[in-house]
Specification:
alpha+beta, eight-stranded mixed sheet, 6 helices, globular, membrane, transmembrane
Amino acid sequence: MSGSNSSVPASSSVAAPRPDEDAPLGLTVHSLPVQPIEVDQRTRSGRLRMLLILLMCAAPVIASYFTYYVIRPQTHSNYSTLILPPRSVPSATQLSLQDLAGRPVDPVTLRGQWLLVVVSDGACDSNCETLLYAQRQLREGLGREKERLDRVWLVTGEAAPRPELLPAMAQATVLRAVEGQVANWLEAEAGRRLGDHLYLVDPHGQWMMRVPADFDPAKVRRDLERLLRAAASWDRAGRDTL
Protein backbone atom coordinates (compact mmCIF):
# COMPACT_ATOMS: atom_id res chain seq x y z
CA MET A 1 0.00 0.00 0.00
CA SER A 2 1.12 3.39 -0.69
CA GLY A 3 2.16 5.51 2.32
CA SER A 4 0.94 8.70 0.76
CA ASN A 5 -2.09 8.89 3.09
CA SER A 6 -0.32 7.74 6.25
CA SER A 7 0.66 11.25 7.43
CA VAL A 8 -1.17 14.57 7.72
CA PRO A 9 0.63 17.70 6.63
CA ALA A 10 1.93 19.74 9.57
CA SER A 11 0.12 22.78 8.35
CA SER A 12 -3.24 21.12 8.76
CA SER A 13 -2.56 19.45 12.13
CA VAL A 14 -1.75 22.61 14.15
CA ALA A 15 -4.44 25.22 14.47
CA ALA A 16 -3.31 28.83 14.22
CA PRO A 17 -3.83 30.82 17.45
CA ARG A 18 -6.64 33.28 17.42
CA PRO A 19 -5.67 36.83 18.13
CA ASP A 20 -8.23 37.19 20.88
CA GLU A 21 -6.94 34.22 22.83
CA ASP A 22 -3.16 34.36 23.11
CA ALA A 23 -2.04 37.90 22.04
CA PRO A 24 -1.08 40.11 25.02
CA LEU A 25 -3.36 43.09 25.68
CA GLY A 26 -1.84 46.55 25.46
CA LEU A 27 -3.26 49.74 27.07
CA THR A 28 -2.51 53.23 25.76
CA VAL A 29 -3.08 56.19 28.12
CA HIS A 30 -3.88 59.52 26.43
CA SER A 31 -3.72 62.84 28.31
CA LEU A 32 -6.93 64.79 28.38
CA PRO A 33 -6.84 68.16 26.65
CA VAL A 34 -7.15 71.30 28.84
CA GLN A 35 -10.65 72.55 28.48
CA PRO A 36 -11.20 76.23 27.53
CA ILE A 37 -13.30 76.67 30.67
CA GLU A 38 -10.29 75.83 32.87
CA VAL A 39 -8.12 78.38 31.02
CA ASP A 40 -10.75 81.08 31.49
CA GLN A 41 -10.99 80.29 35.19
CA ARG A 42 -7.22 80.55 35.60
CA THR A 43 -7.16 83.89 33.73
CA ARG A 44 -9.95 85.32 35.86
CA SER A 45 -8.25 84.11 39.04
CA GLY A 46 -4.96 85.79 38.04
CA ARG A 47 -6.68 89.06 37.22
CA LEU A 48 -8.55 88.99 40.51
CA ARG A 49 -5.32 88.50 42.47
CA MET A 50 -3.69 91.40 40.61
CA LEU A 51 -6.69 93.65 41.32
CA LEU A 52 -6.57 92.76 45.01
CA ILE A 53 -2.87 93.67 45.17
CA LEU A 54 -3.53 97.04 43.49
CA LEU A 55 -6.39 97.76 45.88
CA MET A 56 -4.20 96.93 48.87
CA CYS A 57 -1.54 99.39 47.64
CA ALA A 58 -4.10 102.16 47.03
CA ALA A 59 -6.11 101.52 50.19
CA PRO A 60 -4.33 104.04 52.47
CA VAL A 61 -4.82 106.91 50.01
CA ILE A 62 -8.45 105.98 49.35
CA ALA A 63 -9.17 105.60 53.07
CA SER A 64 -7.68 108.96 54.03
CA TYR A 65 -9.57 110.84 51.32
CA PHE A 66 -12.80 108.98 52.08
CA THR A 67 -12.42 109.82 55.77
CA TYR A 68 -11.88 113.50 55.13
CA TYR A 69 -14.21 114.11 52.20
CA VAL A 70 -17.10 111.80 53.12
CA ILE A 71 -17.15 110.88 56.82
CA ARG A 72 -15.68 113.90 58.56
CA PRO A 73 -17.69 116.58 56.74
CA GLN A 74 -20.81 114.84 58.07
CA THR A 75 -19.58 114.99 61.67
CA HIS A 76 -18.25 118.54 61.70
CA SER A 77 -18.07 121.55 59.41
CA ASN A 78 -14.82 122.60 57.80
CA TYR A 79 -13.85 126.20 58.20
CA SER A 80 -12.20 126.39 54.78
CA THR A 81 -14.01 125.53 51.56
CA LEU A 82 -13.38 122.10 50.08
CA ILE A 83 -13.08 122.06 46.29
CA LEU A 84 -14.96 119.06 44.87
CA PRO A 85 -13.78 117.67 42.63
CA PRO A 86 -10.21 118.90 43.18
CA ARG A 87 -8.54 120.66 40.24
CA SER A 88 -5.23 119.27 38.97
CA VAL A 89 -2.35 121.64 38.37
CA PRO A 90 -2.32 122.59 34.66
CA SER A 91 0.39 121.58 32.22
CA ALA A 92 3.25 123.89 31.23
CA THR A 93 1.35 124.96 28.11
CA GLN A 94 -1.63 126.06 30.22
CA LEU A 95 0.26 127.58 33.15
CA SER A 96 3.53 129.35 32.29
CA LEU A 97 5.74 129.65 35.36
CA GLN A 98 9.19 131.22 35.74
CA ASP A 99 11.60 131.60 38.62
CA LEU A 100 12.83 135.09 39.52
CA ALA A 101 15.77 134.65 37.13
CA GLY A 102 13.36 134.19 34.22
CA ARG A 103 13.94 130.46 33.78
CA PRO A 104 10.84 128.38 32.92
CA VAL A 105 9.48 126.08 35.62
CA ASP A 106 7.28 123.10 34.79
CA PRO A 107 4.17 123.13 37.05
CA VAL A 108 4.54 119.35 37.50
CA THR A 109 7.55 120.05 39.75
CA LEU A 110 5.14 121.47 42.34
CA ARG A 111 3.83 117.97 43.02
CA GLY A 112 5.01 115.87 45.94
CA GLN A 113 4.27 118.29 48.78
CA TRP A 114 1.33 120.09 50.34
CA LEU A 115 1.34 123.71 49.14
CA LEU A 116 -0.11 126.84 50.73
CA VAL A 117 -0.37 129.34 47.89
CA VAL A 118 -0.63 133.14 47.74
CA VAL A 119 -1.43 134.86 44.42
CA SER A 120 -0.54 138.56 44.17
CA ASP A 121 1.34 141.05 42.01
CA GLY A 122 4.91 141.96 42.84
CA ALA A 123 3.96 145.31 44.37
CA CYS A 124 2.22 143.34 47.17
CA ASP A 125 -0.25 145.63 48.97
CA SER A 126 -1.14 145.38 52.65
CA ASN A 127 -3.54 142.49 52.03
CA CYS A 128 -0.80 140.57 50.23
CA GLU A 129 1.64 141.20 53.11
CA THR A 130 -0.96 139.92 55.58
CA LEU A 131 -1.40 136.71 53.57
CA LEU A 132 2.35 136.14 53.24
CA TYR A 133 2.78 136.61 56.98
CA ALA A 134 -0.15 134.32 57.78
CA GLN A 135 1.19 131.75 55.31
CA ARG A 136 4.47 131.64 57.22
CA GLN A 137 2.86 131.53 60.66
CA LEU A 138 0.45 128.75 59.69
CA ARG A 139 3.34 126.60 58.50
CA GLU A 140 5.37 127.24 61.64
CA GLY A 141 2.32 126.45 63.76
CA LEU A 142 2.30 122.88 62.45
CA GLY A 143 5.39 122.06 64.53
CA ARG A 144 7.19 118.92 63.38
CA GLU A 145 4.66 118.45 60.57
CA LYS A 146 5.65 121.74 58.91
CA GLU A 147 8.14 119.99 56.61
CA ARG A 148 5.17 118.46 54.79
CA LEU A 149 3.90 121.91 53.76
CA ASP A 150 5.61 124.36 51.38
CA ARG A 151 4.82 128.06 50.94
CA VAL A 152 4.32 129.26 47.36
CA TRP A 153 3.93 132.83 46.12
CA LEU A 154 2.69 133.12 42.53
CA VAL A 155 3.73 136.64 41.49
CA THR A 156 1.46 138.14 38.81
CA GLY A 157 1.68 141.41 36.89
CA GLU A 158 4.74 143.21 35.55
CA ALA A 159 6.23 144.45 38.83
CA ALA A 160 9.04 142.47 40.41
CA PRO A 161 8.57 141.35 44.04
CA ARG A 162 9.51 144.11 46.45
CA PRO A 163 13.09 143.44 47.61
CA GLU A 164 12.23 143.91 51.30
CA LEU A 165 9.81 140.96 51.09
CA LEU A 166 12.30 138.46 49.70
CA PRO A 167 14.22 137.69 52.92
CA ALA A 168 10.98 136.46 54.51
CA MET A 169 10.40 134.29 51.42
CA ALA A 170 13.84 132.66 51.55
CA GLN A 171 12.36 129.27 52.48
CA ALA A 172 9.42 129.64 50.09
CA THR A 173 8.92 129.02 46.36
CA VAL A 174 8.46 132.32 44.50
CA LEU A 175 7.40 132.04 40.85
CA ARG A 176 6.25 134.50 38.19
CA ALA A 177 2.86 133.60 36.67
CA VAL A 178 0.17 134.99 34.38
CA GLU A 179 -2.89 135.89 36.43
CA GLY A 180 -5.39 134.79 33.76
CA GLN A 181 -3.76 131.36 33.56
CA VAL A 182 -3.72 131.01 37.34
CA ALA A 183 -7.42 131.92 37.39
CA ASN A 184 -8.13 128.90 35.18
CA TRP A 185 -6.84 126.70 38.00
CA LEU A 186 -7.47 128.56 41.27
CA GLU A 187 -10.68 130.48 41.79
CA ALA A 188 -11.77 133.13 44.28
CA GLU A 189 -15.17 132.97 45.93
CA ALA A 190 -17.93 135.10 44.43
CA GLY A 191 -17.29 138.83 44.82
CA ARG A 192 -13.63 138.35 45.80
CA ARG A 193 -10.30 138.70 44.02
CA LEU A 194 -7.84 135.90 43.41
CA GLY A 195 -5.44 137.60 45.80
CA ASP A 196 -7.89 137.61 48.71
CA HIS A 197 -7.36 133.95 49.65
CA LEU A 198 -4.86 131.30 50.61
CA TYR A 199 -5.16 128.15 48.47
CA LEU A 200 -4.19 124.63 49.58
CA VAL A 201 -2.85 122.15 47.00
CA ASP A 202 -2.34 118.48 47.87
CA PRO A 203 0.80 116.40 47.05
CA HIS A 204 -0.83 115.15 43.84
CA GLY A 205 -0.90 118.72 42.52
CA GLN A 206 -4.65 119.13 43.05
CA TRP A 207 -6.15 122.32 44.41
CA MET A 208 -8.54 121.04 47.04
CA MET A 209 -9.19 123.81 49.61
CA ARG A 210 -9.70 127.60 49.67
CA VAL A 211 -9.20 129.59 52.87
CA PRO A 212 -11.83 132.30 53.44
CA ALA A 213 -10.90 135.95 53.06
CA ASP A 214 -10.32 137.68 56.42
CA PHE A 215 -9.89 134.26 58.01
CA ASP A 216 -9.33 133.11 61.58
CA PRO A 217 -5.80 131.61 61.67
CA ALA A 218 -6.62 129.19 64.50
CA LYS A 219 -9.47 127.65 62.51
CA VAL A 220 -7.35 127.38 59.38
CA ARG A 221 -4.63 125.64 61.38
CA ARG A 222 -7.15 123.08 62.60
CA ASP A 223 -8.15 122.38 58.99
CA LEU A 224 -4.49 121.86 58.05
CA GLU A 225 -3.84 119.61 61.03
CA ARG A 226 -6.84 117.41 60.21
CA LEU A 227 -5.78 117.09 56.59
CA LEU A 228 -2.19 116.19 57.41
CA ARG A 229 -3.36 113.69 60.00
CA ALA A 230 -5.75 112.05 57.54
CA ALA A 231 -2.96 111.76 54.95
CA ALA A 232 -0.28 110.56 57.38
CA SER A 233 -0.37 106.96 56.11
CA TRP A 234 0.73 107.85 52.56
CA ASP A 235 2.20 111.36 52.60
CA ARG A 236 5.78 112.03 53.67
CA ALA A 237 7.82 115.21 53.93
CA GLY A 238 9.83 116.11 50.83
CA ARG A 239 9.03 116.64 47.21
CA ASP A 240 8.92 112.96 46.18
CA THR A 241 7.67 111.86 42.78
CA LEU A 242 4.10 110.50 43.05
